[in-house]
Amino acid sequence: MTFALNDVVDLDRYPIDQPDGDAYAAVVAHARSGLRADGCAVIKDLVRPEGLPKLAAEIADRKPTTHFSTQVINPYFHVSVNDDYPDRHPVNTFLERSSGFIPGDSWGDDTLNRFLFEHPAVCRFLADCLEIPELHPYADPLAGLTSNILDPGQQFTWHFDTNEFAVTVLVEEADEGGLFEYVPNVRTVDDEGFDAIQAVLEGGRDGVHTLDLRPGDLQIFRGRYSLHQVSRVPEHSRPRHAAIFAYTEQPGVIGRVERTMQLFGRVLPEHIAAEEERVRADALID
Ligand SMILES: O=C(O)CCC(=O)C(=O)O
Ligand SMILES: [Fe+2]
Question: pLDDT tens digit string along 72-128?
Fold first, then answer.
């Protein structure tokens, strides 16, 4: 099966394959202003309506391969108490993350989701939005292309990402809940912002933005500095499905064993090899 970019991206409205054009410059300027202001940009209806059912069907077909793991985590994905900090502190505040991920190795090369994720024009466009020279699909075989699944009753609680940025296409929305919420730049490189974070973890709404994301919208998000969550999908709602595209500025990056186990419940030989490579690079005697 071969695809054309226009099958999935609304190139009439967003000609992301024509980087020299005025329309391209306009959408990049829109994304940059959002990213500069609060680390978040939304391109409404980037996916054309005809492409959406195909993305949705691919996710539904692979849903049985979702790795669900209910964990009680702090915003840094840790699960155990740290006695160096007080009880009432973000490091020692643990909330439920009960969503799951469809892993990267569930998607064949012939899927529209992968086609969109890896398309060179999409990578070029995203790099321009993010004001970086280039970006590459994250080479991690499990964490590169995923789908985040929130079934009824589930939530993805407040956290920071380890990646500098993430790209999401909402594919199926919940009838209620399942909202992406974030606190822009609640921490910076030199300020952890613990007090503001703790207030949000305790239910405070100061500084919380709720995104109006609809199926077909593309979101670019800098999740390392902005605390964020996907709110709980109630039991009576349909599930929420999002395609998540991870990229890196350098080619060939592979995730760490520990985080991979946490998110996917397993690792592949590539992860082990990359870990050994790291050890070798750091230690002088081989
Ligand atoms: O599903 C989403 O919209 C984003 C989920 C998220 O924050 C993550 O995967 O780190
Ligand atoms: Fe996240």
Answer: 999 999 999 999 999 999 999 999 999 999 999 999 999 999 999 999 999 999 999
Give residue-wise pLDDT tens across range 222-238.
Answer: 999 999 999 999 999 99
Annotation: CATH topology of 13-250:
Jelly Rolls (2.60.120)
Measured in Å, residue 1 CA sits from the centre of ligand 2 at 32
Domains of the chain, by residue range, sit at 13-250
Percentages (nearest 5) of helix, strand, coil residues in the chain: 30, 20, 50
CA dist., res. 72 & res. 263, Å (int): 13
> Quick one: residue 9, left, alpha or beta (phi over 0 = left, psi -120 to 50 = alpha)?
beta
Using a 10 angstrom Cβ sphere, with 0-12 exposed, 13-18 middle and 19 or more buried, the burial of residue 70 is exposed
pTM listed for this prediction: 0.94
CA distances from 248 to 105, 130, 148, 173, 193 (A): 18, 12, 19, 27, 26
| pLDDT of the residue at 232 | 98
- Which residues have any ligand 1 atom within 6 Å of their CB? 148, 156, 161, 168, 180, 228, 230, 242, 244
281 CA from centroid of ligand 1 (Å): 32
Q: What percent of the chain has pLDDT over 90?
A: 91
